[in-house]
């Protein structure tokens, strides 16, 4: 087979057309990329002012730093602090999250322009032009690089007032995390045939990086744990922006990006267009699926399984860290205030649990949106049409998917609760209760997605925007001192703070009723409108 | 004879586009009805209204005696549909999809399912994306032909099939007709329509321009006549319905409206005929006449 290997193309022609493809990708993403960059930059750049309001004097800031040094659970949430300047505190408070947002942006860009294109068959059309064998992957990575570079530039310029070197280090670090996950996505996109699976697996790696860093930081107060060093997000905090920057850590990002890109190119060069290294196996010659609901379950069970495992593990990990909070902080008012600002309630153990459970609730909103929007995907791809041409009513078709979306949110929050109970080892009842209460707010977000799909199918993907906004309000809203009116927009803001606070049935019931009403109106819309082609 | 599909005065617009502009369609029970028209003339929109996927703005439609919008589920129990572009789920095998669709209709004849899979040479164990276009089409066709239904709605069902498979498809449609089932066949393959269809409807710009058996339609078009005469022809140019007259010595070529053929032949035999060929209009000519009527108007609009 040497003849074949000599046929493997070499030289610059492999990259023919890359420039055109990059311009094409930037044109296609002209709305998406600026939104990702804008939201991320806004989150980081608004932080120094907010922190100034919260911790005005240097004595207050020094106090905060001391608390963090003694509190592993808090470090697990946001990482260690290396200095008490406003810049260093900004890097501490949002650096990890900004890195995660850059990572999600990057993995979406890369999968969208590689595996998505192959899965849809559009890649064949593109590849039949004057386009080199490596051009598509290169264009996807360059597009991600452009987005991350612009983000780094904005952050550097915007934070320059806090110290130019620190601003540059933070910007490069965040963009570095983005590019590590861009190249990671490029590898995963070679392995799977499905773009959805490629995104899911890469996001899973991101989640693992998050947990590794959290576990490492709860063990040490200076980011020196081996676990932290295993996580690209851990590298970001170890760059130590605004605190005697360690520039050499940036080389880790460069090395990881180069290595992963090389692996991705190697894999891409060894496979055919549209094929993968985890090929589709043959299925049964005859099937047992007999209803639209069974079909919906078959289509969604894989991702529900992934979410279930993720939520259970996250519960175990964060549940296991909970005791550290109570033991080390005791009754310290200042630390409690920090937790409370993150959405917790008095009593440090309960506060920590409450904050963590609230965070998982916010993430569950992403699940419910993804699951409800399967309806949208089935419809626009033309797969709903032959199903509805059978003796299947639209309500029956929709209800199968909605059952999994809304029932699935109960399931994953229940599993998260079980995980917390296992990790924490006590208070199983209150923890499970606290997790289930989150479902009411999750359902409202799901209801909004159903409403959009039913009444404005072209705008259905705006449900992602709703979930993202709620996530942002929940994560950084309390720290940003945003007006209460804004916080009240999020249904999560109306939930009782559990465990610890008192159960309030009123708001929970109202949220459930709102969710039911939204679903009802949305389904009425689905029944009445034309199916989109 | 009862009607499987009756549609009258159907209107449907998408924004400013009038996809259907007073369309009429009548399909008798037990017939194979050809549904023809240029791209974008509203064939698929009509079919989607008949399936209750779109709601007509105005006009009346009945499918198997039911309202296709309000009574969609009950109607669909007796209908099998094959879209022109079949999209399958990537993680479901073809066999699973065939069985799912069968169960979601009136049921599946397992013996016929096996027979059809064999005849169409389909591998039912492959999964969604690994099928080629033609094979995805076969999955939908097997599911439709094996289902226990009264009406088959086929929207350009043979796109992507090779000629061998197209022959299998034609035999299957004939078998369906022999069983007394009704077929609405939207197609651009004229030989297919000519061979299979009892009656055809031609639509253009959302409106029915012609309906009837192929013999009826032929009658409305021109026959070409070539003749060699004993002497010089005369008087032909003045006859009604004669077009493209070309006289060279004793040879005559002309096109004549089929309804006026008799008068032309009489005129020719008056002069004396040495040889004569007369060609009935092909289906292609029939359609081109209808399809091309748009062209001058559109060109003028530009």
Summarize the structure.
With 533 residues, chain A is mainly α.
Care to describe what's here?
Chain A has 24 helices and no strands. Chain A has helices spanning 2-6, 18-28, 32-45, 47-54, 58-70, 72-78, 86-113, 115-120, 122-127, 135-159, 164-191, 195-219, 226-230, 232-238, 249-269, 292-329, 333-341, 348-380, 384-388, 394-424, 428-455, 462-480, 484-487, 505-528. Chain A is globular and about 70 Å long. Residues 1-7 of chain A have low confidence and may be disordered. Chain B is 35% helix and 30% strand. In chain B, a hairpin with a 2-residue loop joins strand 1 (3-14) and strand 2. With 302 residues, chain B is of the alpha/beta class. Classes of the chains: A mainly alpha (533), B alpha/beta (302).
Q: Which descriptor suits the 3D outline of chain B?
A: elongated
- Name the assembly state: heterodimer
End-to-end Cα distance of chain B, whole Å, is: 46 Å
- List the total number of helices of chain B: 11
Q: Could you tell me the mean pLDDT of chain A? A: 88
Largest sheet of chain A: none
Radius of gyration of chain A: 24 Å
The sequence of SSEs of chain A as H and E is HHHHHHHHHHHHHHHHHHHHHHHH
Largest interface between protein chains, with number of residues from each side: A-B, 39 and 42 residues
Principal-axis shape of chain A: globular
- Radius of gyration computed on alpha carbons of chain B: 23 Å
How confident overall, as mean pLDDT of chain B? Answer: 88
Strand content of chain B: 25-35%
Strand content of chain A: under 5%
Supply the helix-strand structural class of chain B: alpha/beta
* pLDDT < 50 runs, ≥5 residues of chain B: 296-302
Name the helicity range of chain B.
Answer: 25-40%
End-to-end separation of chain A: 47 Å
The beta-strand count of chain A equals 0
């Amino acid at each position: 087979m040497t003849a074949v290997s000599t046929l493997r193309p070499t030289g610059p022609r492999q990259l023919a057309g890359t420039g055109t493809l990059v311009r094409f990708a930037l044109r296609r993403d002209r709305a998406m990329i600026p939104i990702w960059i804008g939201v991320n930059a806004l989150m980081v750049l608004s932080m120094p002012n907010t922190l100034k309001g919260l911790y005005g004097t240097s004595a207050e800031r020094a106090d905060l730093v001391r608390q963090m040094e003694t509190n592993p659970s808090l470090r697990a949430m946001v990482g260690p602090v290396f200095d008490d300047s406003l810049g260093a505190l900004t890097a501490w408070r949002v650096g990890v999250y900004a890195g995660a947002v850059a990572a999600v942006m990057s993995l979406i860009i890369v999968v969208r322009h590689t595996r998505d294109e192959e899965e849809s068959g559009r890649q064949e059309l593109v590849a039949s032009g004057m386009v080199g064998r490596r051009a598509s992957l290169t264009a996807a990575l360059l597009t991600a690089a452009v987005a991350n570079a612009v983000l780094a530039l904005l952050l550097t310029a915007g934070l320059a007032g806090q110290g130019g070197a620190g601003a540059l280090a933070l910007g490069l670090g965040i963009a570095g995390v983005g590019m590590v996950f861009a190249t990671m996505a490029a590898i995963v996109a070679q392995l799977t045939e499905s773009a959805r699976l490629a995104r899911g697996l890469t996001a899973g790696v991101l989640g693992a990086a998050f947990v590794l860093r959290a576990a490492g930081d709860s063990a040490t107060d200076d980011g020196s744990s081996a676990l932290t060093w295993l996580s690209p997000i851990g590298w970001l905090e170890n760059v130590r922006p605004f605190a005697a920057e360690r520039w050499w850590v940036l080389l880790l990002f460069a090395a990881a990006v180069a290595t992963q890109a090389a692996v991705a190119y190697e894999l891409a060069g060894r496979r055919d267009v549209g094929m993968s290294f985890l090929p589709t196996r043959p299925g049964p010659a005859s099937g047992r699926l007999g209803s639209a609901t069974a079909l919906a379950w078959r289509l969604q069970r894989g991702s529900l399984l992934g979410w279930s495992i993720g939520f259970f593990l996250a519960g175990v990990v964060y549940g296991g860290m909970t005791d550290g909070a109570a033991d080390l902080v005791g009754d310290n008012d200042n630390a409690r205030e920090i937790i409370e600002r993150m959405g917790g309630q008095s009593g440090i153990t309960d506060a920590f649990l409450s904050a963590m459970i609230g965070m998982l609730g916010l993430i569950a909103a992403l699940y419910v949106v993804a699951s409800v929007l399967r309806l949208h995907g089935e419809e626009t791809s033309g797969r709903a049409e032959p199903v509805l041409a059978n003796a299947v009513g639209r309500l029956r078709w929709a209800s199968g998917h909605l059952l999994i979306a809304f029932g699935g949110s109960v399931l994953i929050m229940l599993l998260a609760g079980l995980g917390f109970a296992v990790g924490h080892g006590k208070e199983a009842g209150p923890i499970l209760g606290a997790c289930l209460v989150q479902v009411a707010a999750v359902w409202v977000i799901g209801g909004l997605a159903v409403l959009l799909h039913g009444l404005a199918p072209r705008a259905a993907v705006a449900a992602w925007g709703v979930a993202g906004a709620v996530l942002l309000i929940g994560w950084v809203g309390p720290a940003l001192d945003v007006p209460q009116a804004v916080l009240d927009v999020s249904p999560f803001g109306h939930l009782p703070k559990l465990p610890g606070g008192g159960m309030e049935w009123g708001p929970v019931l109202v949220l459930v009723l709102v969710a039911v009403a939204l679903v009802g109106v949305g389904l009425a819309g689905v029944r009445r409108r034309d199916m989109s082609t | 004879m009862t009607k499987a599909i009756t549609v009258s005065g159907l209107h449907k617009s998408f924004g400013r586009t009038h996809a259907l502009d007073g369309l009429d369609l009548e399909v008798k029970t037990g017939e194979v009805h050809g549904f023809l028209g240029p791209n974008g003339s509203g064939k698929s929109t009509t079919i989607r209204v008949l399936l209750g996927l779109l709601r007509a703005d105005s006009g009346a439609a009945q499918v198997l005696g039911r309202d296709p919008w309000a009574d969609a589920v009950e109607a669909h129990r007796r209908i099998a549909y094959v879209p022109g572009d079949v999209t399958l789920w990537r993680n479901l095998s073809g066999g699973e999809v065939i069985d799912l669709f069968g169960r979601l209709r009136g049921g599946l004849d397992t013996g016929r399912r096996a027979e059809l899979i064999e005849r169409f040479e389909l591998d039912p164990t492959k999964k969604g994306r690994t099928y080629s276009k033609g094979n995805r089409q076969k999955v939908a066709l097997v599911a439709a032909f094996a289902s226990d239904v009264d009406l088959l709605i086929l929207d350009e069902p043979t796109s992507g099939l090779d000629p061998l498979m197209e022959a299998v498809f034609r035999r299957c449609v004939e078998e369906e007709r022999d069983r007394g089932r009704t077929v609405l066949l939207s197609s651009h393959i004229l030989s297919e329509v000519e061979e299979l269809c009892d009656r055809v409807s031609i639509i253009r710009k959302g409106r029915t321009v012609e309906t009837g058996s192929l013999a009826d339609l032929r009658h409305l078009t021109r026959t070409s006549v070539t003749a060699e005469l004993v002497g010089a022809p005369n008087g032909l140019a003045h006859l009604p319905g004669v077009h493209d007259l070309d006289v060279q010595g004793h040879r005559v070529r002309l096109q004549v409206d089929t309804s006026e053929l008799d008068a032309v032949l009489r005129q020719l035999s008056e002069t004396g005929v040495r040889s004569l060929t007369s060609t009935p209009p092909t289906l292609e000519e029939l359609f081109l006449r209808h399809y091309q009527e748009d062209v001058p108007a559109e060109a003028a609009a530009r």
